[in-house]
TrEMBL record:
Keywords: Hydrolase. The lineage of its organism: Bacteria, Bacillati, Actinomycetota, Actinomycetes, Kitasatosporales. This is SpoIIE family protein phosphatase. It comes from Streptomyces thermocoprophilus. PANTHER family: STAGE II SPORULATION PROTEIN E (PTHR43156:SF2), STAGE II SPORULATION PROTEIN E-RELATED (PTHR43156). It comes from the Bacteria. Pfam families: HATPase_c_2 (PF13581), PAS_3 (PF08447), SpoIIE (PF07228). InterPro entries: Bact_Sigma-Reg, GAF, GAF-like_dom_sf, HATPase_C_sf, HATPase_dom, PAS, PAS-assoc_C, PAS-like_dom_sf. Residues 233-285 form the PAC domain.
Length: 824
């Protein structure tokens, strides 16, 4: 099986003569030069053909090219006329130059080339040079050389568009100054736009205003300097007519860089394209594909854009686009997606949503990928079953080149016999080059996006804790614009005595530095809260930490600490949005408490406390500005809309409430959302405390206090002995090994008693691994570990708290009431 190009040039010079005779029959056609270059591709088996002519500043400038993107072969847009490039040499010497892979490697060892070897031919033409590149290691054979020499004799390089920059405008030429938007146009272009010379004001906006609105974005992508790269651009667009349908025009232009006080200029030609091919070879289709691929971010988006651009114009029955990963082809899009529409061998490899298979299972496809050229097989061609059933009426395989390698392949199949014309091959070749570059870019986007998402997931809580007397849910949406990770975060921190801290914050900017700082702030707030500090002290400590980090970034934060037993809460704001409360009657309230500056702005800032009163059924909502701020409304209006949406929600299930609040959110910024519904505790704990004085009878006094409390709570005698032992050992340990104040706390909830002894020493007791008979200490912690169900230590402000928990039996008497014990 051979490619269309290979089959073409083996027929020799007669086919060249026939093709050139047809093209030369219309010498005024604006497409004549491009069609001649396409002949070089088809008849000589080349990958790209480029025509150069002398331009401005002693440069040999690209006039036109056909085939694969010339950058894949290292061809530039300009060459110095006195340089040693093949194009410049043949222009000066007037003799063709044939270079094989070895000669090219010796001439330019640092040139960026494809993986496989290729050959280059440079031939003189009237007024310029013709450069043709093919991927045949043996070089161009005599038949191909004869074809190229005949083509070079027939083609004449037109005056390059750069000459327009010097004021030498032809009737179909234009020159646009990129800084001012002033444009010089020839008379023929004005006639195509329906303007007279005296009615034209020299502004490009005047011409753009006469185009069909649907075509304006594609035109703007060319006339805006930020989106243009050095090199040629070609597209088709429509202009409105006084009567009748719009007229199709074709623009061919390139950006000429400025310098020495001269602005950059877009120069080129505009010609009537209304009589050119209206169907699959319409350059507008490639133009629209390029526009779609420029906005396609993911591999799936690229695949869908290719399918939309090719299947309908080619009237194909199925299209598959697969990404090349190592030695496997992983299908990213199948159209139609129904598995029954594809070969049985494909369905055997249907592992997940899409199939994948080793390239070696399809030798014909593997050969096409190695060759790197579009290959076409008509109906009846003997192919392996995995490919034959894709296109029984005809099959086209488009390798997708990108960055010197193959990024994947596109398979297009027809069920009924399909007649492949030369125009279709040009469309397929151009589409393959665009799709390959976009696929490579999208693959990098997907990989980086996954890395960013993984980093963000690692910095945020994996799951929220189970709360006593409440339920919390959280949502995080990363920004869809760009790939940089954001600095929004949330946290739910369980605290002793059934307290809970709700935290939400936002670090300035979107970068890895912001994400790193976000992780530091979340960790710092959690650590300060676990030490037992009140909310204003927690936020003040975090503020000083951020100021000491000497970063240029700042952070905003809202910290709400809730007593889940009583429903009382305190709020501290550091430059952040206030909490929004949804009361049990459905009324919403934006809590306008006083706040301090953002964290990291002032080292000695004040962060006032604001009280909140929660009743069972109240929902506390905390969010970041990405959800409520937009370009068309200020933050107060957005916060009011957020409160209204919360008012209309049903708080029975907070998951759907959070999803509804995020529905339709603008994704230009990260969004964090934290909701907590306060339900109140079904059974409130019983608590009693005792201050231990440093007297010889301190341990005995602590035991007597504990015995009275346990009796009032109805704790049985068997359980009392174990509790008294734990109290005695913990209090004695604190008296012997620490200085300062000691406090004993007893808490009973659901038949589980917690004994906690707090002191001013940060040093935690350690259970000894072994105790000898002669040891005088260390047995207290061993006894505590033996009789309690769990024990440990937690830091508190300036010291620690050693605690132990014991599971008790049912009460001996009626249920006690809070505060029934006598306080000493």
């Amino acid at each position: 099986m051979v490619t269309e190009g290979a089959a073409g040039y083996r027929t020799g010079t007669p086919r060249v003569e026939a093709a050139l005779q047809t093209l030369m029959a219309d010498p005024d056609s604006p497409e004549r030069v491009h069609r001649v270059l396409e002949c070089a591709l088809v008849l000589a088996g080349a990958g790209v053909a480029a025509l150069y002519a002398p331009g401005d500043d002693d440069l040999l400038c690209l006039v036109d090219s056909a085939g694969l993107p010339r950058t894949l072969y290292g061809l530039r847009g300009t060459y110095a006329l006195d340089g040693d490039s093949p194009a410049a040499r043949v222009h000066r010497e007037g003799r063709p130059l044939w270079l094989g892979p070895r000669e090219l490697a010796a001439r330019a060892p640092s040139r960026r080339t494809p993986a496989q070897a290729f050959s280059l031919a440079a031939l003189p033409v009237r007024g310029g040079s013709l450069v043709v590149v093919g991927e045949r290691p043996a070089g161009f054979d005599p038949g191909a050389r004869a074809c190229l020499e005949r083509i070079a004799d027939a083609v004449a390089a037109p005056v390059p568009a750069e000459s327009a920059a010097r004021g030498e405008l032809r009737g179909d030429s234009f020159s646009l100054a990129m800084d001012s938007g002033r444009i010089e146009v020839g008379d023929d272009i004005l006639q195509l736009f329906g303007l007279s010379r005296d009615r034209f004001d020299g502004r490009v906006e005047t011409l753009l205003g006469l185009t069909v609105p649907e075509d304006l974005p594609a035109l703007m992508s060319v006339v805006e300097a930020d989106h243009m790269s050095l090199g040629d651009r070609e597209l088709e667009f429509r202009v409105l007519q006084p009567t009748g349908p719009p007229r199709w025009l074709r623009l061919h232009g390139r950006l000429v860089p400025g310098g020495e006080g001269r602005p950059a200029r877009l120069v080129g030609t505009v010609a009537d394209a209304s009589t050119l091919r209206p169907d699959v070879t319409d350059v507008a289709r490639v133009q629209r594909l390029a526009a779609a691929l420029s906005t396609a971010g993911t591999v799936r988006d690229v695949s869908q854009a290719v399918v939309s651009a090719l299947r309908r114009p080619l009237r194909a029955d199925r299209i598959a686009l697969a990404e090349l990963e190592g030695d496997r082809l992983v299908v990213t899009v199948l159209d139609p997606p129904d598995p029954e529409a594809w070969p049985e061998l494909w369905r055997l490899e249907w592992r997940t949503e899409w199939p994948d298979a080793p390239v070696r299972t399809m030798p014909t496809l593997a050969a096409a990928l190695r060759e790197g050229r579009a290959r076409i097989w008509p109906a009846g061609t003997a192919l392996e079953p995995a490919l034959a059933d894709v296109g029984p009426g005809g099959l086209a395989v488009l390798p997708l080149p990108a960055g010197g390698r193959m990024a994947g392949a596109c398979l297009i199949g027809w069920d009924t016999p399909h007649d492949f014309g030369p125009d279709e091959r040009a469309l397929l070749t151009a589409s393959a080059g665009l799709a390959g570059q976009a696929l490579l870019r999208a693959h990098a986007f997907d990989a980086e996006h996954e890395l960013v998402g993984m980093l963000q997931r690692q910095l945020l809580p994996r799951r929220l804790p189970v709360l006593p007397g409440g339920v919390a849910v959280a949502r995080y949406l990363p920004a869809t614009a760009g790939l940089e990770v954001g600095g929004d975060w949330y946290d739910v921190i369980p605290l002793p005595d059934n307290h809970v801290a709700l935290v939400i914050g936002d670090v300035q900017g979107h970068s890895t530095a912001a994400a790193t700082l976000m992780g530091q702030m979340r960790t710092a707030l959690r650590a300060y809260a676990a030490e037992g500090h009140p909310p204003d002290v927690v936020v003040a400590h975090a503020n000083r930490l951020l100021a000491d980090l000497e970063t240029d970034l700042f952070a905003t934060c809202c910290y709400v600490q809730v007593n889940m037993e009583s429903g009382s809460a305190w709020c501290v704001r550091a430059g952040h949005l206030p909490p929004v409360l949804r009361h049990p009657d459905g009324r919403t309230e934006i809590v306008e408490t006083d706040g301090g500056p953002p964290l990291g702005v002032l080292r000695q800032a004040e962060f006032p406390l604001g009280p909140l009163a929660l009743r069972p059924g109240t929902v506390v909502a905390l969010t970041t500005d990405g959800l409520v701020e937009s370009t068309d409304a200020d933050i107060d209006e957005g916060l009011a809309r957020f409160a209204g949406a919360l008012d209309a929600s049903d708080p029975a299930d907070l998951g759907p409430v959070a999803d509804a609040l995020l529905d339709g959110a603008r994704r230009s910024d990260d969004i964090a959302l934290l909701l907590m519904r306060y339900d109140g505790m079904a059974s409130r704990p019983l608590r009693e405390s005792w201050t231990v004085w440093r007297v010889p009878q301190a341990a005995g006094q602590a035991r007597r206090f504990t015995r009275r409390v346990l009796r009032s709570w109805g704790v049985g005698e068997r359980d009392r002995d174990a509790v008294l032992l734990v109290v005695s050992e913990l209090v004695t340990n604190a008296l012997v090994h620490t200085d300062g104040r000691i406090r004993l706390d007893l808490t009973l909830v659901n038949h589980r008693l917690r004994v906690a002894v707090a002191d001013t020493s940060p040093r935690s007791p350690v259970k000894p691994t072994s105790i000898g008979w002669e040891a005088t200490g260390g047995r207290g912690i061993v006894l505590v570990d033996a009789v309690s169900d769990a024990w440990g230590t937690v830091p508190v402000s300036g010291g620690k708290q050693v605690w132990a928990e014991l599971e008790l039996g049912p009460p001996a008497g009626p249920p006690p009431t809070p505060g029934a014990a006598h306080r000493a």
